[in-house]
Amino acid sequence: MTVSRTIYAPSREGLRDAYGAMQKIRCFEERLHAEFAAGRVPSSVHLYAGQEASAAGICAHLGAQDYLHNTHRAHGPAIARGADLIAITKEIYLRAGGLCQGKGGSPHLHDARLRLIGANGGVGSGAALACGSALAIRHRQENGVAVALLGDGACNQGVVSESFNLASVWKLPVVFAIENNGYAEATATSYAIAGDNLAARGPAFGMPSTRVDGADYFAVHEAAGVAIERARSGGGPSLVEIMAPRFYGHYEGDAQKYRAPGEVAELRRTRDCLTRLRQRMIDEYQFSTAEIDAMDAEIGVDIDRAFAEAAAAPPSDPALLMRDIYADRSGL
Ligand SMILES: Cc1ncc(C[n+]2csc(CCOP(=O)(O)OP(=O)(O)O)c2C)c(N)n1
Ligand SMILES: [Mg+2]
């Protein structure tokens, strides 16, 4: 069973926003990579570079009423959802003024006001939490959708299968977006994923599903649009598997000895979503290189500022450590 194809052609303005988000993620992470190598980043970091089209293609369809459940590979989706870049950077540096007051660091970016729900270290848990958000949406009679981002490795967690089942039985407004980057830590999907096709798990739970090329922003945008619209209009859950390359290691510091020599260089050459999007914007949407260069320059300034402010901020206050352990529903 596959979702029927509807044309969700992005507007020129939509492409500008998507490119802006993707370029911001890429440049932010390249800077972070260098900062980490220089020993200046105190929290553990998993880079999202290579997967930018996934976050941007999904977030293009989300509004204030929708929930996005993030994974530990958290920077990209947080940026695409519109979380404040300075607060994100301060959080990664465990500084006061961080998105979570500097208490969580990189894998825990969370902003309840944006309904950007905790990146968290419990791999696969976003699937169950998204079912909870979707149930809340239904009880409040809102017009929202909950999107759960999941890695390929997460799909081997029991809770993910349970969530697929529950969402389908209750026809919850959920989209399960599997970001298949080919690895769970150092384990290749070809080694650990039975059937090697996660999209095939959707129909087993009565859900439409589709597999798209994560290097193609347009393909992700369309598949996400179809699935999100289906959930929003009461059609129930869907599964979208997004095949996206991982340009860095599992975590910063990973020697990546399990990857073939030249593998990453080849992925960067052939499967870079940002290069492809930039080219299509020029070829098909009349963007000039000067216009795109100007956007890049503006993003560069924002990134310089975020890192400078984070470096200048005081460390997070240990007195805050025991706060926010139990739910404060006021911001939800
Ligand atoms: C329940 C659970 N099991 C194991 C881990 C350790 N762990 C952290 S990230 C990771 C790999 C996850 O792979 P995947 O879901 O493909 O996401 P990716 O890192 O590739 O984005 C594992 C096994 C964990 N954090 N939580
Ligand atoms: Mg993975």
What count of domains describes the coordinates? Answer: 1
> Approximately what portion of the residues adopt beta-strand conformation?
5-15%
For the sheet with most strands, the description reads: 6 strands, parallel
CATH class category name: Alpha Beta
CATH homologous superfamily label: Thiamin diphosphate (ThDP)-binding fold, Pyr/PP domains
Write down how many β-strands occur, each being a DSSP E stretch of 2 or more residues: 8
Residue share in helix = 40-55%
Number of helices: 12
Structure ligands: thiamine diphosphate, magnesium ion
Query: What string gives the helices and strands in order?
Result: HHEHHEHEHEEEHHEHEHHH
Strand order of the largest sheet: 2-1-3-4-8-7
Oligomeric description of these chains: single chain
CATH architecture: 3-Layer(aba) Sandwich
Helix/strand class: alpha/beta
Describe this structure in words.
The strands form two sheets. The protein has a six-stranded parallel sheet, with helices on both faces. A two-stranded antiparallel sheet has the order 5-6. The protein has helices at residues 12-37, 52-59, 75-80, 85-92, 125-139, 158-169, 189-192, 201-204, 217-232, 263-270, 273-284, 289-312; strands at residues 67-69, 116-117, 146-151, 174-180, 183-184, 187-188, 209-213, 238-243. Mean pLDDT is 95; it is low at 1-6. With 332 residues, the chain is α/β, with parallel strands linked by helices. The chain has a single domain, classed as Thiamin diphosphate (ThDP)-binding fold, Pyr/PP domains (Rossmann fold, 3-Layer(aba) Sandwich). It has twelve helices and eight strands. The two termini are 36 Å apart. The chain is 43% helix and 10% strand. Helix 1 (12-37) packs across helix 2 and helix 1 crosses helix 12. The site of thiamine diphosphate (TPP) has 16 residues, from strand 5.
